[in-house]
Amino acid sequence: xxxxxxxxxxxxxxxxxxxxxxxxxxxxxxxxxxxxxxxxxxxxxxxxxxxxxxxxxxxxxxxxxxxxxxxxxxxxxxxxxxxxxxxxxxxxxxxxxxxxxxxxxxxxxxxxxxxxxxxxxxxxxxxxxxxxxxxxxxxxxxxxxxxxxxxxxxxxxxxxxxxxxxxxxxxxxxxxxxxxxxxxxxxxxxxxxxxxxxxxxxxxxxxxxxxxxxxxxxxxxxxxxxxxxxxxxxxxxxxxxxxxxxxxxxxxxxxxxxxxxxxxxxxxx
Length: 269
Known about the structure:
The chain is mostly helical. It has one domain. The protein is built from eleven helices and no strands.
């Protein structure tokens, strides 16, 4: 089970692409545009971006990792006092908000719990690693703070926080990306951006609906993303192996040098 969740964790960016599929399908379908839902979706997506920024201010570099672990202190303050996984909650809010913009209406709100459900195996893998690292401290934290959303129960201590300037430097594309995604979806729906028409022309040639064609492109992107993730993992592994070999070689040279010194001293006498 742990091996499966580890693979799931490693390819969590691909999981995000899969969650985008309902947005692509609905954006490319022809249906009326309700500006009320569009506005609500933009507000919801920006709320998710704000939650991510606030969470990163507390967790710092721990927001982007290659393996599940704890860097420094266990963060229990800020958004982490209400949710053990506010970064995933933020992602779910952004996805659900963009689903509203894409025209799903009230059904788009279902993407919020749906995304949390899909992310659960990733969270389970992280919890095993964190529990092994900090033990009792995490057990107490898990008992007082909900996995997703709940009443405040974390540390009352304001804790350490990264300066806002550093947060915005690391996440400089977050808010512009959310705004551009919402704007792009809207412009595609109202045909200002003729993506639907272009895909329709291609679809006519291959006998495929534009929405299906969009999902095919997204699937190819997800496969490509998984391949890139695996290649990066292999490169990291090779670097670590080379570093270990260099360390062993240096240790062997030091041992040989230490063994040579007494022999030279004896020869000199």
